[in-house]
UniProtKB/TrEMBL annotation:
<dbReference type="InterPro" id="IPR003953">
    <property type="entry name" value="FAD-dep_OxRdtase_2_FAD-bd"/>
</dbReference>
<dbReference type="InterPro" id="IPR050315">
    <property type="entry name" value="FAD-oxidoreductase_2"/>
</dbReference>
<keyword id="KW-0274">FAD</keyword>
<dbReference type="InterPro" id="IPR027477">
    <property type="entry name" value="Succ_DH/fumarate_Rdtase_cat_sf"/>
</dbReference>
<keyword id="KW-0560">Oxidoreductase</keyword>
<dbReference type="InterPro" id="IPR036188">
    <property type="entry name" value="FAD/NAD-bd_sf"/>
</dbReference>
<dbReference type="GO" id="GO:0008202">
    <property type="term" value="P:steroid metabolic process"/>
</dbReference>
<feature type="region of interest" description="Disordered">
    <location>
        <begin position="1"/>
        <end position="21"/>
    </location>
</feature>
<dbReference type="GO" id="GO:0033765">
    <property type="term" value="F:steroid dehydrogenase activity, acting on the CH-CH group of donors"/>
</dbReference>
<dbReference type="Pfam" id="PF00890">
    <property type="entry name" value="FAD_binding_2"/>
</dbReference>
<keyword id="KW-0285">Flavoprotein</keyword>
<feature type="domain" description="FAD-dependent oxidoreductase 2 FAD-binding">
    <location>
        <begin position="75"/>
        <end position="521"/>
    </location>
</feature>
<protein>
    <submittedName>
        <fullName>FAD-binding dehydrogenase</fullName>
    </submittedName>
</protein>
Length: 631
């Protein structure tokens, strides 16, 4: 299929046999076996992805010159008109570059309503400990990412935000970036770590409709529309085109990316980029087969979707892999939230019921601290049997303020059940009655004791069950975005499989990787949109100024590892010699030094045990205070 990428965790050697259950997309690309060089596949049970299927733009075939209708020349080509791509295009234009922004969808993309930054003008007076923030980002990824991209976000997000405000000031609607106030130790939702006070938003903007503050993503969509308007009307050097997908990257003989092949109503054309191409295509949450190949099945198998554009189909990932780019190892992290309903992201009429109620599985058992960050609760639910199927919010009539008028609607949809007792409610909803009764009784006892002994929920900000009517509301997780992508360095240059920057190719937003691992850390405010804005800004600066980082230095003086070799089997004579060692049984966990071992026992490496057992001549082989087998 012409894709030549390999995973960061490639094992080399012969290519694996093709998987009979491979996830093959509508474009014919086998996403399961996308890597060359025998890269390991992700071991996981198969599950069908129920998510939306957007239009895939990437074409695996090489587009012959005979099909190219024309060529156009630009300094910078940006692929994708989401918030990161628009930022990249506007920054490049601000630096004097001629810019083409290509968007395959008809109206562009949206973004969520808030984002994170450090040191922006609107954050004056807010103290943010950069070292603590960096440490939290690294720890949330279990240090499985390189530090440079996160540091770029922390160090450059403030100036990127200030530039964003200057762009919005050119618009006609008065968008204002302002600080989002949060509870001192909750990051917006109760969490185990102190507040990282980085969150910014647009809630003070007069152009937003009155309900934008409670409709997640609405304000972000309006902001993107404003950025589109600025790109089209405030900059003569920006060419923004919709319904025009990029399908392939173009490289020269040195491997440098020099442009893209794109398609419009007249056919294929080549857009040359003298300074570079910036990949801003987003994730791939609208590509079901790619989701099946690159993410954990529990992250999608029983989920709803929140996506306003359906354009996120992994085009940038595939275009990068086709020119030798490196991608984050699978499984990729997914941004997923709790609170999903069978047909939507959430129904906000259930806000109080969800906030005050408890969450149980089909056995009627609680399985998570309900007031934990959304991502935490979602992950816990997805870990339940059936990938979170048959999970319910349980609450009573003292907790459901705001949904009184929706009770009959939810009941008719089959989402809500009511009972006068735990047994009656369980029978109606299909929950184990004994389990639910025991859970409610135990949960009630926590209020008497003053401590949630199962999950340490903060009982001071919730309610006990005191009503006479019990309710069970169905719930599932929902997918917002994938957050694994093409590996980048601190300049947002895309790296090849040898960790060398690919000249002329940059990435931002969810098309870029090297930032999250395993999980999207919801307790750190705004790293998703924050990195999209920051990396779009930095990628444009790097492209226009021809900034290219250096590759790894691997030719130092570190010695080569000692190879382990296959040792000979222990024969009868060897066993007899071991018995002569006395009470020090070599097959027990406590044993003597390597001087007492035969080479056969050590697998042919007589120095093996000396790596961790080095004793002075004649010294005891146990520490002071330990007992010997012979005493």
């Amino acid at each position: 299929m012409g894709v030549v990428g390999t995973a960061c965790a490639s094992n080399g050697g012969e290519a694996p046999d093709k998987d009979a259950n491979a996830a093959t997309g509508v474009d014919g690309v086998d996403y399961t076996n996308v890597y060359e060089g025998g890269a390991n596949l992700m071991p996981a049970r198969k599950a069908v992805c129920p998510g939306p299927r957007g239009p895939v733009a990437f074409e695996a075939r090489d587009i012959p010159d005979s099909e190219i209708q024309r060529e156009e020349d630009f300094d910078v080509v940006v692929v994708g008109a989401g918030v990161g791509g628009l930022m990249a295009g506007l920054k490049a234009a601000d630096l004097g570059a001629s810019v083409l922004i290509l968007e395959k969808m008809t109206k562009g993309r949206g973004c969520f309503e808030c984002f994170g930054a450090v040191g922006a003008g609107c954050q004056e007076g807010t103290e943010i400990d950069k070292a603590a923030l960096l440490d939290e980002i690294y720890r949330s990824a279990y240090y499985r990412t390189r530090p440079e991209p996160a540091r770029t976000y922390v160090d450059r997000s403030g100036e990127a935000t200030d530039f964003w405000q200057s762009v919005l000031d050119k618009g006609a609607n008065g968008f204002v970036i302002s600080k989002v106030e949060q509870a001192p130790s909750s990051c917006g939702f109760p969490a185990m770590t102190p507040l990282i006070d980085t969150e910014l938003g647009f809630y003070d903007s007069p152009a937003l409709p009155p309900d934008a503050g409670v409709r997640s993503g609405l304000s972000g969509i309006y902001v993107c529309l404003e950025m589109q308007d600025v790109a089209k009307n405030a900059y003569d050097t920006v060419d923004l085109r919709f319904s025009t997908p990029a399908v392939r990257l173009v490289s020269d003989d040195s491997g440098a990316v020099t442009g893209v092949v794109a398609r419009d109503e007249s056919g294929y054309f080549r857009a040359n980029a003298s300074k570079g191409v910036i990949m801003a295509t987003g994730g791939y949450d609208c590509n079901p087969e790619m989701m099946q190949a690159w993410t954990r099945p529990e992250d999608y198998a029983n989920s709803s979707w929140w996506n306003p554009g359906w354009g996120t189909t992994g085009d940038g990932h595939m275009m990068g892999l086709a020119v030798g780019a490196q991608m984050d190892p699978v499984p990729h992290p997914v941004m997923n939230f709790r609170w999903g309903t069978p047909d939507s992201f959430a129904d906000f009429r259930t806000w109080n019921a969800v906030y005050f109620g408890i969450l149980v599985n089909g056995r009627g058992n609680r399985f998570v601290r309900e007031d934990a960050p959304f991502q935490v609760v979602s992950n816990a639910q997805n870990a339940q049997p059936g990938y979170g199927k048959n999970c319910w919010y349980i609450f009573d009539e003292t907790m459901y303020e705001g949904m009184e008028d929706a009770l009959e609607e939810f009941k008719q949809k089959g989402w809500l059940y009511e009972g006068a007792s735990a047994d009656e409610l369980a029978q109606a909803a299909g929950i184990d009655a004994d389990g639910l009764s025991a859970t409610l009784e135990r949960y009630g006892s926590f209020f008497e004791a003053g401590r949630d002994e199962d999950f340490d929920r903060d009982l001071a900000v919730t309610l006990p069950f005191t009503g006479s009517r019990l309710f069970a509301f169905t719930t599932n997780s929902n997918v917002l975005a994938t957050t694994g992508g093409l590996c980048i360095d601190e300049h947002c240059s895309v790296l090849d499989v040898n960790d060398e920057p690919i000249r002329g190719l940059y990435a931002c937003g969810n098309a870029s990787g090297s930032f999250f691992s395993g999980n999207y850390p919801r307790h750190i405010p705004g790293t998703s949109i924050g990195r999209a804005i920051t990396f779009g800004y930095v990628a444009a600066e790097s492209a226009v100024n021809a900034v290219v980082g250096v590759g790894p230095k691997l030719d130092g003086n570190a010695p080569a590892l000692t190879p382990y070799v296959e040792g000979s089997a222990v024969d009868e004579a060897g066993k007899a010699s071991f018995e002569n060692l006395g009470p020090w049984n070599p097959y027990d966990p406590i044993h003597g030094g390597s001087a007492d071992y035969a080479p056969e026992q050590l697998g042919g490496i007589s120095e093996a045990c000396d790596n961790c057992h080095t004793y002075a001549s004649g010294a005891d082989t146990v520490l002071d205070g330990m007992s010997s087998l012979g005493k």
